[in-house]
Amino acid sequence: MSADPSLWSADHVRQWLEWAVKEYGLPEVDVSLFHSIDGKELCKMSKDDVQRLTSSYTADILLSHLHYLRE
């Protein structure tokens, strides 16, 4: 898996989500809702976009980690 999230496949996004769920204890994430989202699409998503798929708290955690990875 590339270190650059914008190059991830949909499967890489799923793997990252599964890792984040375990790492940060985010039980309310339904990984299947992200099934068609690749890294390029994920990196374009706003907080509102992510909140449509999960809670506000979880969206903050995921987007914070994604921002960290993109630096």
Automatic annotation (TrEMBL):
Pfam families attached to this UniProt entry: SAM_PNT
Name the InterPro entries on file. Pointed_dom (IPR003118), SAM/pointed_sf (IPR013761)
This protein's superkingdom? Answer: Eukaryota
Q: Which SUPFAM superfamilies match?
A: SAM/Pointed domain
Q: Which PROSITE patterns match?
A: PNT
Which positions fall inside the PNT domain? 1-71
Q: Quote the Gene3D superfamilies the UniProt record gives.
A: Transcription Factor, Ets-1
| SMART domains documented for this protein | SAM_PNT (SM00251)
Q: What protein name applies here?
A: PNT domain-containing protein
